[in-house]
Amino acid sequence: MSATDPRVEAHLAKARSWKQELLALRRIALEAGLTEELKWYQPCYTHAGGNVLILGSFKDFCTMSFFKGVLLKDPKGLLVSPGPNTRSARMARITSLDEVHALEPALKRFIAEAKALEEQGIQVDFASDRANTPVPVELREAMADDPELHAAFKALTPGRQRGYLLHIGGAKQSATRTARIAKCRDRILAGKGWNER
To answer: For the purposes of burial, counting CB atoms within 10 Å of the CB of 100, is it exposed (0-12), middle (13-18) or buried (19 or more)?
Structure first.
């Protein structure tokens, strides 16, 4: 079993819900030889310098989320995407201690596979996702009319570009998309993502 992190101990001691389930998931992660850390205020488990999984607690369930879950073999579909725009992570949603015990063999397989991915340095290919994120017409028009905006947008990291595309494109009305572009212009010119300060 790997060494425990006292910050995780303190975090789990304060847990109001899913405490027994989280402790069982933690045991599985530690028995697999992962390194325990507290990241983003959550128990996080790493291997070979990379994040492997993170535990989370929500109102209706707790989770064991795999950072590169999209690369894991999951023929039974036990892992789900946290949201519609999630490209890499996949999580097991847990609603009881019995479910943790029932899923334990599968979770151990996922952890072993995720560790191997880290050891081999395998990364998720996000390039195809970027190419499939549509550019809203209003943004294309704004960049055509504003070369400074166009150059600044193209200079953003791919992740920041995608964030703006999702934020702007998420508006249902053209007027709202146009307003979002105007509101985001200064941040784009500053090289920041849409939710960065």
So the answer is: buried
Give pTM, 2 decimals.
Answer: 0.76
* Spatial CA neighbour of 108 closest among 18, 57, 34, 4: 34
Residue 48 inside a domain? The answer is yes
- 197 in any annotated domain: no
pLDDT along the chain (197 residues), means of 10: 87 95 98 96 96 97 97 96 89 98 98 97 79 87 96 92 91 95 96 89
Which of 120, 140, 157 lies at the terminal end of a domain, its last residue?
120
How many domains, the chain? 2
* pLDDT for res 131: 65
- Parent domain of 184: 127-189
For residue 35, count other CB atoms closer than 10 A to its CB: 16
